[in-house]
Amino acid sequence: MSVLPAINSADKAEADRRAIAIWLAAVAALVFIMVVVGGLTRLTESGLSITEWKPVTGAIPPMSEEHWQKEFDLYRQIPQYQLINKGMSLDEFKTIYWWEWGHRFLGRLIGLAFFVPFVWFAVRRRIEKGLMPRLVFLFVLGGMQGVLGWWMVMSGLTERTEVSQYRLAAHLGLATIIFGALVWTVLDLLNGRKSRFTDGLAKAALALMLFVFLQTILGAFVAGLRAGFVYNTWPLMAGAWIPDGLLRMEPLWHNFFENHLTVQFQHRIAAYLLLAAAAWHWWMARKTDAATGAGLLTLGIVAQAALGIWTVLWVVPIPLGAAHQAGAMIVFAISIWHLHRLAK
Q1: Helix (H) and strand (E) counts in the chain
Q2: pTM of the entire structure?
């Protein structure tokens, strides 16, 4: 008789974990969509169309021609309009405005999609004590992402015609971290918590996951500088395997973040190295239980590299640019899944 309550308690705890995992997976899916929409906002050059940050009232778009004209007048005061889009019509402005509004709306939706179920689960005491700090931390990261997004937009409102590539990389980097943390937490809930990487394969999988993240950040610098719109050949770049001018800027470190040639070149080289590392990892894991995950990760990186080449050769059309950004998040999710399977 004493065993039955314990079994019921265990079943309830398992059901709670599954329910929370489903909720967090849905939030992760929204974050994924937000990253893709963010890429589309950048590709359509819409990110500076809303020049004020109104976390609450900004959720309501302009509802009259008078309000639309007010937003347009604010946009016409910034350098992007004056130097690039001068003469833009109100209807053209509405198109870029809706992209940025949609991106910000998704941010608000993600906040609600996280906060409301979190409160519901917490009030009903369905969240394990060990999980609570992680969920609170995720919510704080989400708030920081909103602030970071506005900090990024601010960089393009006064002296620039686009946002700073440094701030763009920080914004995408934090979004990727939040997405990865959500995926890892879902896997913890479904398969048991893991945090130790003891054997060689697990350590290699950890290194690959970090490499995928680094490559995503390098891609953000390519996007921020619009470096994908130049040097649109492959495999040669500027007619050479190692083009001239890689280190022409002073001081030296500026080249890796501000030189269009160097930024695209390092993104290409990192892709080759990442692919080689993933292939080697699969070879080492081919006779183990990790072979499936290592193979899937390698295939994902191959597909992402091919998509990147296609994107460059076609001079970054919007659909391919967005697909390449989505591909980066998919490969990152695969790397996390593979790492979780190997961790202890």
Answers
A1: 11, 0
A2: 0.95
